[in-house]
C-alpha cells in the first residue's frame, strides 16, 4: 500500500549497496588482511544525494502518506567488478567491487496533481519548499514570490497548510539546495527551472469568463477576466498577453484550403490552461531526471580510476555488472479514484503477476513436466484480472477506441466496457453506479473508479495553438521543449491518415505506460530477482504502533498467506535419481542395496529404483517427520526426486552419521 515504506526501504538499500565503495581488502605490514577505507567517491555521493531532488519534485502528501511517490523509478547501479584471475592472485575470496555510476528510468509522473488534488492532500513538495525559501532569493527568481503564501495561488490554496508544515518545508529547502549544487543546479540554470514552476502557479490564477455580447460584435467564447494575473504571467513567461489570451480562448481549425477560428467556452479554455501547466511540470521533471543521469553516469576518467585504487578493474561498459532497484507506487484506493489510480493499480497488478510467475509458475511448469500432482494457484494468480484490463476486448481497448473518436467521451467508454464485459466477475457492475462509474476486483481488493475525464487524460493532448504560442517564451526550458513539440506536430499533420492514427494512438498515456512496463519486465527477466514486501503498520501514520488486523489484511491480499500455504505443499529440495542412488544407497541395511534391487527386478527404471530406495529409507523417517504434518516426505518425478522441508536434511544427517562411523580416530 501507499505509505508502507517502499521509498525509505529503497534509500536504505541504496545506502548499503554504496558501502561496497567505501572499503576494499588489503595487506598490512604484518601480511594480514584488513579493510582500507577509500572514502566516498563523487559518483557515489551524487547517486545518494539525488534522493532529495526526486522527493521534492516527485513526491507529495496524500491521504495515506505524507511523502508519497507519485512516480515510479528504476535505478540501475553499475558496478565494476575485479576479474576472477586477479582475485585469485591476490588471495581474496571476494572480488573488489566499485560503484561507478547509475542511471534512472522514471514511470508515469502524476501530472494531474499539479492542477488538482483531494482535500487534505498537497501538490508536489517543491512548490511549498519554494515558498518557504528566503524572501531575498524568491525575489531574485520572481518578484511575485516575495511574501507570497499558498493562499496566493489557486493550485496550492486548497491544501490545509499548517505552520509546522511550513517550517518543515523551509528545512527541506535547505537540504534541497545542497543537493542541487552537487548537480550544478545553481545560478541562472536553477532560476530557469524555478521560474517555470512560477509560470505553473501563475497559470492556475487565471480565471475565464463568458464573453459578453457588448464586448464584441459576435457573441460567445470566453475571455481571461483576471487581467492583472494575465499581465504578471505575460511578464514572467515572456509572451505578449494578447497572444496568450488568444491561444487559450480560441482554436484554429485548419482544412486543406482554409482555416477558421473557434471560440472556446470558459471550461474548455480553463482545461487548455491546466493542460499547459501539467505539460510544463512534466518537462521540468524530465529535465531534472536527465540532469541527474548526466552527473551519475558511468565515467572512465583517470581521476575515477585513481580514486578507486582499481588497478585491476576495467571500466568497460560491456563488462559492468548491474544491481537494479525498483521503487514503484503502491496500490491505491480512495473515496474517489480517477485515471491515475487505475494506472497505478494496473502497474501493481503487473508486478503481482510477475511475482507469482517467478515464484510459482516456474515450479508449476516443472511439476507438470515431471508428472507431479499440481497445486492450486487460483488464489494468487491474477491473470484473469489483467485479461479484463489490458487484453484486446478489455477495459483499456475500449478506452483507446473512445480516444480515437472525435466524439469520444467517458460515458460511452464506461457503457461499452460494462456491456462487453457483462459476464466478467472481475468487473464490478452496480445499479447505484453513476454513468461514469465502474469497479474492478483487484488482487488487493475492490476499487470503484470514476471515469470522469478518463478520455481527456489518456489523450494527454495539448492544443496546437498553445504549443505554437508557448514556443515563443523567453524561458529557455519552455522554448526548447515546445519547439520540439511543435516540430513533432508538423510531422504528424503531414503524415497520411493511417500513419497519423498510429502516431496518435501511440502517444496516449496508457500506450506509453504499457510500452514502459514491457521494457521493465524484459529488464527484470534478465536479472535474478528479489522481492521485498513492505507492510504498512497503521493507518494513522504513527511510529511504534502496529495494527495487527490491518497487517493481516495486507498479508492476505498481497498473496503472502497463500504463497506460504503453497510453499508448504511444494517440495523445495530435489535431486536426480542417479544422485539419490549414489548418495544414499549406503544407508540401506543388510544385503539390500541398489545393486541387489537391480538384480532382483531387472530391468528396472531409474525412477522405480529411486522409489524403492526411498521407500526403505523413509520407513523410519516418516515417523520422525509426522509431527510436521508431512504424510509423504518425498515424491518421484520422471527425472528427479523431490523432498519436503526437513526430509532431505534428515537423510543427510543419517548419511553424515554413517560416514563418520568409519572415520579413523
TrEMBL record:
One of its GO terms (biological process) is actin filament organization. Residues 517-539 are annotated as: Actin-binding. Residues 1-656 form the Myosin motor domain. PROSITE patterns: MYOSIN_MOTOR. Pfam families: Myosin_head. Gene3D superfamilies: 1.10.10.820, 1.20.58.530, 3.30.70.1590, Kinesin motor domain (3.40.850.10), Myosin VI head, motor domain, U50 subdomain (1.20.120.720). InterPro entries: Kinesin_motor_dom_sf, Myosin_head_motor_dom-like, P-loop_NTPase. It comes from the Eukaryota. Keywords: Actin-binding, ATP-binding, Motor protein, Myosin, Nucleotide-binding. GO terms for molecular function: actin filament binding; ATP binding; microfilament motor activity. PANTHER family: DILUTE CLASS UNCONVENTIONAL MYOSIN, ISOFORM C (PTHR13140:SF706), MYOSIN (PTHR13140). Belongs to the TRAFAC class myosin-kinesin ATPase superfamily. Myosin family. This is Myosin motor domain-containing protein.
Amino acid at each position: 500500500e501507499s505509505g508502507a515504506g517502499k521509498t525509505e526501504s529503497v534509500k536504505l538499500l541504496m545506502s548499503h549497496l554504496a558501502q561496497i565503495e567505501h572499503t576494499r581488502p588489503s595487506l598490512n605490514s604484518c601480511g594480514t588482511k584488513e579493510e582500507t577505507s577509500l572514502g566516498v567517491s563523487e559518483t557515489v555521493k551524487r547517486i545518494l544525494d539525488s534522493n532529495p531532488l526526486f522527493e521534492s519534485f516527485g513526491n507529495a502528501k496524500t491521504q495515506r502518506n505524507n511523502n508519497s511517490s507519485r512516480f515510479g523509478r528504476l535505478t540501475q547501479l553499475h558496478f565494476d567488478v575485479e576479474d576472477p584471475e586477479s582475485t585469485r592472485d591476490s588471495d581474496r575470496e571476494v572480488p573488489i567491487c566499485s560503484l561507478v555510476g547509475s542511471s534512472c528510468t522514471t514511470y508515469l509522473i502524476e501530472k494531474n496533481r499539479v492542477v488538482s488534488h483531494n482535500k487534505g492532500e498537497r501538490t508536489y513538495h517543491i512548490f511549498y519548499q519554494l515558498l518557504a525559501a528566503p524572501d531575498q532569493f524568491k525575489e531574485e527568481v520572481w518578484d511575485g514570490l516575495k511574501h507570497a503564501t499558498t493562499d496566493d495561488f489557486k493550485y496550492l490554496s486548497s491544501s490545509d497548510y499548517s505552520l509546522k508544515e511550513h517550517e518543515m518545508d523551509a528545512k527541506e529547502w535547505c537540504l534541497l539546495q545542497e543537493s542541487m549544487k552537487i548537480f550544478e543546479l545553481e545560478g541562472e540554470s536553477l532560476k530557469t527551472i524555478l521560474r517555470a514552476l512560477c509560470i505553473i502557479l501563475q497559470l492556475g490564477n487565471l480565471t475565464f469568463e463568458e464573453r459578453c455580447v457588448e464586448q464584441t460584435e459576435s457573441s460567445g467564447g470566453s475571455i481571461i477576466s483576471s487581467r492583472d494575473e494575465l499581465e504578471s504571467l505575460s511578464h514572467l513567461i515572456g509572451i505578449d498577453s494578447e497572444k496568450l489570451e488568444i491561444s487559450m480562448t480560441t482554436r484554429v481549425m485548419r482544412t486543406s484550403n482554409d482555416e477558421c477560428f473557434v471560440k472556446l467556452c470558459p471550461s474548455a479554455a480553463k482545461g487548455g490552461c491546466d493542460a499547459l501547466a501539467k505539460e510544463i511540470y512534466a518537462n521540468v521533471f524530465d529535465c531534472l531526471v536527465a540532469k541527474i543521469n548526466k552527473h551519475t553516469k558511468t565515467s572512465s576518467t583517470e581521476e575515477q580510476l585513481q580514486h578507486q585504487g582499481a588497478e585491476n578493474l576495467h571500466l568497460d561498459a560491456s563488462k559492468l555488472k548491474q544491481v537494479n532497484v525498483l521503487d514503484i507506487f503502491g496500490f491505491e484506493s480512495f473515496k474517489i479514484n480517477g485515471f491515475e489510480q487505475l494506472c497505478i493499480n494496473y502497474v501493481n497488478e503487473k508486478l503481482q503477476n510477475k511475482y507469482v510467475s517467478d515464484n510459482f509458475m516456474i515450479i508449476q511448469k516443472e511439476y507438470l513436466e515431471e508428472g507431479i500432482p499440481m497445486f492450486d494457484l487460483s488464489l494468487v494468480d491474477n491473470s484473469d484480472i489483467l485479461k479484463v484490463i489490458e487484453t484486446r476486448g478489455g477495459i483499456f481497448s475500449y478506452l483507446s477506441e473512445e480516444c480515437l473518436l472525435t466524439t469520444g467521451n467517458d460515458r460511452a467508454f464506461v457503457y461499452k466496457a460494462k456491456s462487453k464485459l457483462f459476464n466478467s466477475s472481475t468487473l464490478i457492475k452496480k445499479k447505484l453506479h453513476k454513468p461514469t462509474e465502474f469497479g474492478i476486483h483487484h488482487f488487493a481488493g475492490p476499487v470503484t473508479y470514476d471515469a470522469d475525464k478518463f478520455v481527456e487524460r489518456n489523450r494527454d493532448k495539448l492544443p496546437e495553438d498553445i504549443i505554437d504560442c508557448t514556443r515563443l517564451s523567453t524561458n529557455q526550458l519552455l522554448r526548447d521543449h515546445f519547439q520540439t513539440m511543435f516540430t513533432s506536430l508538423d510531422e504528424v499533420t503531414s503524415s497520411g491518415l493511417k500513419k497519423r492514427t498510429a502516431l496518435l494512438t501511440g502517444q496516449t498515456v496508457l500506450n506509453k505506460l504499457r510500452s514502459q512496463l514491457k521494457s521493465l519486465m524484459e529488464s527484470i527477466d534478465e536479472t535474478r530477482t528479489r522481492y521485498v514486501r513492505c507492510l504498512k503498520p497503521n493507518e494513522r501514520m504513527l511510529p511504534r504502533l502496529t495494527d495487527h488486523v490491518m497487517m493481516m489484511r495486507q498479508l492476505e491480499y498481497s498473496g503472502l498467506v497463500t504463497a506460504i500455504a503453497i510453499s508448504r505443499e511444494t517440495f523445495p529440495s530435489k535431486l536426480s535419481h542417479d544422485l539419490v542412488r549414489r548418495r544414499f544407497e549406503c544407508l540401506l541395511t543388510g544385503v539390500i542395496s541398489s545393486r541387489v534391487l537391480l538384480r532382483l527386478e531387472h530391468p528396472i527404471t531409474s525412477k522405480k529404483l529411486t522409489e524403492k530406495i526411498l521407500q526403505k529409507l523413509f520407513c523410519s523417517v516418516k515417523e520422525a517427520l509426522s509431527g510436521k504434518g508431512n504424510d509423504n516426505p518425498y515424491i518421484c518425478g520422471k527425472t528427479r526426486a523431490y523432498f519436503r522441508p526437513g526430509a532431505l536434511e534428515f537423510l543427510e544427517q543419517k548419511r553424515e552419521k554413517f560416514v563418520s562411523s568409519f572415520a579413523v580416530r
